[in-house]
Amino acid sequence: MEAGGRPNVSDFFPVLAAADLQGWRRRLARLFARLHRVFDAEVDARLREHDAGEASKGDFLDVLLGIAARRDDAAELDRDTLRSLFTVCRCFF
Questions:
Q1: Could you tell me which residue, 1 or 82, shows the higher pLDDT?
Q2: What is the pTM of this model?
Q3: Which residues, 6+ apart, have CB-to-CB distance to 90 below 8 Å?
Q4: 31: closest CA among 42, 39, 21?
Q5: Residue 48: which domain range?
Q6: Number of domains in the chain
Q7: What is the dihedral of CA 39, 32, 73, 64, to 10 degrees?
Q8: Which among 47, 44, 45, 39 is positioned nearest to 86, based on CA atoms?
């Protein structure tokens, strides 16, 4: 949150955004990659629990995994979509 909240030179001079003079894009990419590894580990753990026959916890992740498991659903939820959704949701908590 700290990295995303700091002022960036491109906030004041948008023409310089592509140059990434302060390295924010590179830093944030590493932070998001780390965050996505955490999300992937949790999803993988939950899928292993389901495969082992453990009871559903009934939380948000179980609902999303249930939707992703349905093949007839028009709104497919793949791993990238889940990561994006968790990233956005995490920013609000």
A1: 82
A2: 0.69
A3: 35
A4: 39
A5: 2-91
A6: 1
A7: 30
A8: 39
Q: Which residue has the tokens 């030179």?
A: 9
What are the φ/ψ torsions at residue 2 (nearest 5 degrees)? -65, -45
Q: How confident is the model at residue 33 (pLDDT cuts 50, 70, 90)?
A: very high
Residue type, 56: S
**pLDDT tops 60 at residue 82:** yes
Full DSSP string of 1-63: -HHHHS--HHHH-GGGGGG-TT-HHHHHHHHHHHHHHHHHHHHHHHHHHHHTTPPP--SHHHH
> What whole-number distance in Å separates Cα of residue 1 and Cα of residue 31?
10
Residue 85 has what pLDDT?
86
Query: Residue 39: which residues within 8 A CB-CB, separation 6 or more?
Result: 82, 83, 86, 87
